[in-house]
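User: My instructor asked us to take a sequence, write out its structure as tokens, and then describe one feature of it. I'm not sure where to start. Here is the sequence I was given:
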Amino acid sequence: MSAAYASRFEAVFLCNHPKGPKMSFAAASRYMGKSVSFIKKCVKRYEDVKNVDDLPERGKRCSTSEKDDKAILRIFEKNPGCSLRKAKLLLAKKGVEVSLNTIRCRLRDADYGWRCTKLKPFFSEKHVEKRVLWARANIDRDFSNIIFTDESSFWAWGTRRHAWSPRAVAIVQRTVKHPVKVLVWGCFCKQGFGALYLFTDDLNAQKMIQIYQRCLLKSARRWFGSDNSLWVLQEDNDPKHRSRACTEWKRENGIRTLDWPSQSPDANPIENVWAAMKVKLREKRVYNVKQLTRHIRQIWRSLPEIMAENLAESMPKRCQAIIDNDGDWTTY
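Assistant: Let's start with the prediction itself. The structure tokens for your sequence are:
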């Protein structure tokens, strides 16, 4: 029972309840320390509806009209990154004088919130056109013989950007200025995950050929045997992959490559593998390169084969998503 409800019920009991003392309004006012009008209002409500329950409050009257509310939302629909102060100035030019708190309330009423944005690559018209053409050409393709490859960077001292905590408590996460970093090349196909290559120096064409020889061919032979014509290599359009040395090496070894659209990390399923590995790595405290490489290898070996199968089978859906979005980015 709330304090306000108890006060209303006490006023009714003192003045009007059959088992009460039958006080006058003035006597009940003096006894409770409340105004006479409060006592009268409580008694009248009880006589009308036979209870003193909390009634829905009207609240503060809205200071903006429906037209003003649409003008506020229109600003943030056109420019989601607009600040409240800038929005206030833009509204003032239109003759709408509102406070920052009013703008904030109107946005909250429309279910707007200040949220983290997703970073996606910039697409030119040429990129969009090539992505759609590629998706339509490969949507019916059999991806079971495709070896997906990519490189990624892993840092020690990874931290989560979000954490649960009471509102009054600030969560502090310790970081270091220049954490150790390891570069990783990996591959997988529908049959499972292949060899992993870790290095800390720069990647060039010669090192890329070394990775092909030590890791790519080793994994391909395990899945498809010694005949390189039975599988197709997928890699992005990094200049090292398209260099003259790497292109000549792949031609000499009879390795076919899958045509790949530029600026399309969402179409490469191995990006999901890197994301899952980085989430697991954040749970471990790493202090040097040796520990970092050991944890990366452990996480890679723990990846289930069903994950590789599901990612390979998701390729037709990725192609369809690109087509449905007219070449724009997808949720993958």
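For the description part of your assignment, you could build on this observation: The mean pLDDT is 88. Try explaining in your own words what that tells you about the chain.
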